[in-house]
Design brief:
rod-shaped
């Protein structure tokens, strides 16, 4: 009878279909695994690069923060010391006010007190958070708190730098912020990826589902990789801005030192001129009494008209750069760029 043969043929066809589906399922399964493996490799490679660039930026911001602290502790402090000589000198008041207001001088004094305190903390191995933050901002007292609610100035180590970078992007992700261009999101850890079963016989429908999940995972990784690449580019832009800022500040410091040397020479020349007049007048008692009531002393630097205004201009420009915020709303601050461009014209660069 033909029926058994028909049944047997159907059974063989069904077995062949089953084998084909099994082979198709394995092929899809292997493809899904390769997609996930490739995506994870690309993700991890970019993540390592991002972490390296973030570490470089943290180190650079810390170096720049220390540099700015030294500028306040040495150059600005030196200038403030000179200004004490002019405290009761009304003749130089008008000239000083052309460049710096009373409030601005008081502000410089307060920041210098802060930087001296930070230097003391650095010597004790603390306040690294304050140093890093000072690299981005002009003052420590005006800083916001980290996403944990802890003042950035009191943090140290990796917690300080991560909190600072997260704050730059509007706060940590857990607090509703975005981190720096989303960089903190991907640094939190590698996404697990789809759970693809590999043991035993895989039905074709499940293999198709796994392949779809693998492709979705790859698409998600692509988005995160692009986000990381954007962060890497932004980190480099910030580093370039810091380098340019430090270069300009160093040029102003060179000018400050040169002008101060000229100022001291001018002071000495003015003093020697007064001494010579004093000696000549002393020979003529009548003339002596008219011109001198006592022996001349060195005039305060602020009374010297040739170089002191130049010194004031340098400090005014330095103050503007030192207190300028480099990053604002996750981008290079436009005002900072304008200040640097103006400063470069001043130094003839």
């Amino acid at each position: 009878m033909p029926i058994p043969f028909i049944i047997g043929g159907i059974a063989l066809a069904a077995a062949g279909t089953g084998i084909k589906k099994g082979l198709d399922a394995k092929e899809k399964q292997d493809k899904a695994k390769k997609i996930v493996k490739r995506a994870k490799k690309r993700f991890n490679k970019t993540k390592e690069l991002l972490e390296r660039e973030q570490e470089n930026l943290n180190e650079r911001l810390t170096e720049y923060g220390k540099f700015k602290i030294d500028v306040f502790n040495v150059v600005i402090r030196d200038f403030l010391f000179l200004m004490k000589e002019c405290a009761n000198n009304t003749s130089s008041e008008a000239e000083i006010r052309k460049y710096l207001t009373k409030d601005e001088i008081v502000e410089l004094e307060e920041i210098t007190k802060e930087t001296l305190e930070i230097s003391s903390s650095i010597a004790q191995g603390i306040a690294s958070g304050a140093v890093t933050a000072f690299g981005v901002y002009g003052t420590v007292g005006a800083l916001a708190s980290a996403s944990t609610g802890t003042a950035i100035a009191s943090l140290s180590g990796a917690a300080a730098t991560n909190a600072t970078l997260a704050w730059l992007g509007g706060g940590a992700l857990s607090a509703g912020g975005l981190g720096m261009a989303g960089g903190t999101a991907v640094l939190g850890g590698l996404v697990a990826g789809p759970a693809i079963a590999i043991a035993g016989f895989m039905m074709d429908s499940k293999a198709e589902e796994n392949l779809t999940e693998a492709r979705e995972f790859e698409s998600e990784v692509d988005i995160q990789v692009e986000t990381m690449k954007k962060s890497i580019s932004e980190f480099k832009i910030v580093q370039e801005a810091v380098d340019e800022s430090q270069y300009v500040i160093e040029k102003f410091i060179e000018r400050y030192q040169l002008v101060k040397e000229n100022l001291l020479l001018e002071q000495e020349e003015t003093y020697q001129s007064l001494i010579n007049k004093y000696k000549k007048a002393k020979k003529n008692k009548t003339l002596f009494l008219k011109i001198f009531s006592k022996k001349p002393v060195k005039p305060p630097l602020c009374q010297l008209k040739n170089n002191f205004p130049m010194l004031l201009q340098i400090i005014s420009s330095l103050k503007e750069i030192l207190q300028s915020q480099i990053i604002e709303d996750d981008n290079i601050n436009k005002k900072f760029i304008q200040i640097i461009e103006k400063a470069k014209i001043e130094i003839g660069d």
